[in-house]
Specification:
two-stranded antiparallel sheet; 290 residues; TIM Barrel
Length: 290
């Protein structure tokens, strides 16, 4: 397996461990787009734990250890407070729990913007401590030199343009981007710049569909949409959103399950049985040896 550490199936609840197989590589992901066309769209979901990675891995091409874990796991108001330590810990868990998908990790706010050298130090730490295949960073034209710097030094980079959540304070919220001509032109230029800088793929988030389609046809690397267009070369969602773990569902999310309801119902039944002293029952108890 490509992970640095493997799970002990004798003691871990996260088993059975799948049979090892060749993990998808970043060049294989990049090669999905040929002459501007991606015949097999790229499937990407977020993952933050080993068990979650095991469940998602057979169905995905890319697993993203997103800085969205700030809100999803830690209850933070945004992704801005997320640290390298958080990303490294969760990234290592996801790599351990997967064997098929390529795993990439978000670079948290403040870990890469100051200089290409700072970005390299942060990215190298994440890759060395986790075994991940690459990193993702937000920003357009301003980050192009950093993307080139990292790519030339063996660190694959997924870019992120359009709505960039780490810049929520500057953007003034999470609303859709590219509705006016000036902003659309900036996002278009950002996409061209990061593609030319050498990113292996780019996330296009929260932009009007016409702009997402235009960018997808304009750049040579695969585009991965979230709140963009089905015409992108792939799609990504926060897994907890599609599972229905939260009351609020963003417009661009399709809820494929109501896991919050399932968990709440199970907890309610457990509480009822504990209070009625009907759990644990005979099947859950140990008796003396006969």
């Amino acid at each position: 397996m490509s992970a640095t550490y493997t799970l002990d199936t004798a003691t871990s609840r996260a088993n059975p461990t799948p049979a090892p197989m060749r993990r998808l590589t970043i060049p294989a992901i990049r090669a999905r787009k040929v002459d501007g066309v991606t015949d097999s769209p790229i499937v990407m979901l977020t993952a933050y734990t080993a068990r979650q990675a095991q469940l998602l891995d057979p169905h995905c091409d890319l697993l993203l250890v997103g800085d969205s874990l700030g809100q999803v796991i830690y209850g933070l108001p945004s992704s801005v407070p997320v640290t390298l330590e958080m990303m490294a810990a969760h990234g290592a868990a996801v790599v351990r729990g997967s064997y098929h998908s390529a795993v990439i990790i978000d670079m948290p706010f403040g870990s890469y913007e100051a200089s290409p050298e700072q970005a390299f130090a942060s990215a190298a730490r994440l890759m060395k401590e986790t075994g991940a295949a690459g990193v993702k960073l937000e920003g357009g034209e301003a980050m192009a030199p950093t993307i080139t710097f990292l790519s030339e030094r063996g660190i694959p980079v997924c870019a992120h343009v359009g709505l960039t959540p780490q810049a929520v304070n500057a953007l003034g919220g999470y609303g859709p981007r590219g509705r006016d001509a000036a902003e659309a032109a900036k996002i278009r230029n950002d996409a061209r710049a990061v593609a030319a800088a050498g990113c292996f793929a780019m996330v296009i988030e929260g932009v009007i569909e016409e702009l997402a389609i235009e960018i997808t046809g304009d750049v040579h690397c695969p585009t991965i949409g979230i709140g963009a267009s089905a015409a992108c070369d792939g799609q990504v969602l926060v897994t907890e959103d599609l599972l229905g773990m939260f009351e609020r569902t963003p417009r661009f999310v399709k809820r494929y399950a109501d896991l919050a309801g399932t968990i709440s119902d199970a907890a309610a039944q457990y509480a009822q049985e504990v209070r009625a002293r009907s759990f644990p029952g005979e099947a859950q108890l140990y008796g003396a040896k006969k």
